Amino acid sequence: MKTTVCFFLNGEKQVVKVEPSRTLLDVIRKDLGLTGTKKGCGDGDCGGCTVLIDGMPYNSCLVLIPKVEGKEVTTIEGLAENGQMHPIQQAFVNHGAIQCGFCTPGMIMSAKYILNANPKPTEKEIRQGISGNLCRCTGYQKIVEAIGSLAGKEV
Amino acid sequence: MKFAYYKAKSLPEAMTMLEELGDKGKIVAGGTDLLIGIQHGKYAAPEALVDISFIDDLNRLNVQNGDGLAIGATVTHGAICRALNVLEKYPALVEASSQLGSPQVRNLATVGGNICNAAPSAETAPALVALKSMARIVGPSGERQIELKDFFLGPSRTDLKQSEILVGLNINEPPQGSGNAYFRLSPRNALDIAIVNVAAYVKLNKDYTFEDVCICMGAVAPTPLRATSAEKALVGETFSEKLMREAGQLAKTHAVPITDVRASAEYRREMVAVLTEKALAKAYERAKLNM
């Protein structure tokens, strides 16, 4: 039986009528058309589907849609403002921290949480912070440098 | 994957839902294990899930100086990690929770889920057993408590009966002169389960001899396992590297590990000794700072 779930997606109120057994990832991508959030493993291993819920990082493939009732969900599409890339996105571009790009949205959402929770993270804290995001191109070094370049800056 | 879903707002409501559903219902909290298990056919798809993670009483982490710790079943591992400053007497638990899964998984996965899932490699089980946790269970016939070490019956099997809910864990405050620690070994530092994990609790006498020792090992038997002969061998003795090595060798004799994709039984048995030594030494070091 379908259930109605009301939540905020990148600041915009959404009301969806869906099967409760569906995941947040599935609803974001298929019903709401925001495909920036990637489905990699679907098992909570790769972090490609990382979104922020009330500011905290989650694997959206593991979150049943009724769990986000009333919550604020932020995806990669919610970062750019007025056509301007978010400072984290710009840092990833500047540092060449993108290879195939599949892990990038999830990496950037994890980076956003890392920097919001701790504006001056050490390299170790950055590496621990992205430990739930796999980069199949193995381009971790530049990703760590991109996030590190924002230490102490407003994000 | 298709099932009905009910969000319980209170414990009595959850109890009613579970009793009505009988064996058609299943409890979910974080769901990090359950959903994947259903998708991959490890668990039979239930007709309905009863989500207990929105029950306020189960979400609380209460630390009372002198009284100990009460962990609600749906407290997440992320919440345990962020409560580091109030959990300074329970480092083994924080060390276990902080190595479970990944940051994203820790924000969803709950302490109760890790226990009820009853995986032999469960990250927090050895730490919680070594800290002598009591499991609080509520069911149709009221509330009962059992020692956590007796809660595990086998892989994915626990002492929970039909319609019973693990509501939380209680831990007495570790006394002055005690220390605890947790170590795990895994092919990866994140996103993988332990091939061996060991937690140790020690309490020292005023003359620094061991008064009380509790060692619990994971991933080397169907359930978390106490290394009782090693515990006994230490009581009344004074710390030395040689003694720790002997304790590690004794711990090894309890282990009955399996060979799988992550490690061979032989390797696991050797590593039990190493991690037991390490966990005891760290727990001892912490106990000395707490005399």
In words, what does this structure look like?
The complex is a heterodimer of chains A (155) and B (291). Chain A is of the alpha+beta class. Chain A folds into two domains: 3-77, Ubiquitin-like (UB roll) (Roll); 87-148, [2Fe-2S]-binding domain (DNA polymerase, domain 1). Helix content of chain A is 30%, strand content 16%. The N and C termini of chain A lie far apart (41 Å). In chain B, the strands form four sheets. Chain B has a five-stranded antiparallel β-sheet with strand order 4-5-10-6-7. In chain B, strands 11-12-13-14 form a four-stranded antiparallel β-sheet. Chain B is globular. Chain A binds chain B through residues 1, 3, 19-21, 23, 42-45, 47, 50, 56-59, 62-64, 66-67, 69, 110, 113, 128-129, 131-134, and chain B through 1-5, 7, 28, 30-32, 35-36, 39, 49, 51, 53, 78, 101-105, 107-108, 189-191.
Largest beta sheet of chain B, briefly? Answer: 5 strands, antiparallel
> What's the CATH architecture of the largest domain in chain B?
2-Layer Sandwich
Extended strand count of chain A: 5
**What would the average pLDDT of chain A be, to the nearest integer?**
97
The fold-level CATH name of the largest domain in chain A is Ubiquitin-like (UB roll)
Oligomer state equals heterodimer
Structural class of chain B: alpha+beta
Percentage of residues in strands of chain A:
15-25%
Pick out the low-confidence regions of chain A: none
Q: Which chain pair has the greatest contact?
A: A-B, 30 and 27 residues
Major sheet details of chain A: 5 strands, mixed
- How many separate domains make up the residues of chain A? 2
What would you call the shape of chain A? globular
- Structural class assignment of chain A: alpha+beta
* Count of individual helical segments of chain A: 5
Number of structural domains of chain B: 3
Question: What's the CATH class of the largest domain in chain B, please?
Answer: Alpha Beta
Helix content of chain A: 25-40%
Question: What is the count of β-strands of chain B?
Answer: 14
Looking at CATH, which topology of the largest domain in chain B would you report? Uridine Diphospho-n-acetylenolpyruvylglucosamine Reductase, domain 3
